[in-house]
Write a structure and sequence with these properties.
Blueprint lengths: L10 H10 L6 E13 L10 E12 L22
Antiparallel strand pairs: 1-2
């Protein structure tokens, strides 16, 4: 996992990257209990970061745009090629 103290792009880029890796029909569930997140202001790095307070749950579901990864298929046996 990336070091949280290093900038990793925008929130939108991070979310798009995560969602692009998920298959259709996947659900992520998050539960927050009195969590505080300090969010810097990219337009004014000298400004005091905003404080986001999270308390509750969030679900992210994907639908069929990226089909689920198929299980690996073994090659079928071909008795006519057996010596």
């Amino acid at each position: 996992m990336a070091d949280s103290s290093q900038p990793s792009g925008s929130w939108a880029d991070t979310a798009a990257s995560l969602l692009s890796k998920l298959s259709g029909g996947v659900e992520l569930s998050f539960a927050f209990d009195q969590m505080e997140l300090q969010v810097p202001n990219p337009q004014n790095p000298a400004a005091t970061p905003a404080t986001w307070r999270l308390n509750g749950s969030m679900r992210v579901r994907t639908r069929g745009e990226n089909p689920p990864a198929a299980a690996p298929q073994l090659p079928t046996a071909n008795p006519s090629n057996v010596g």
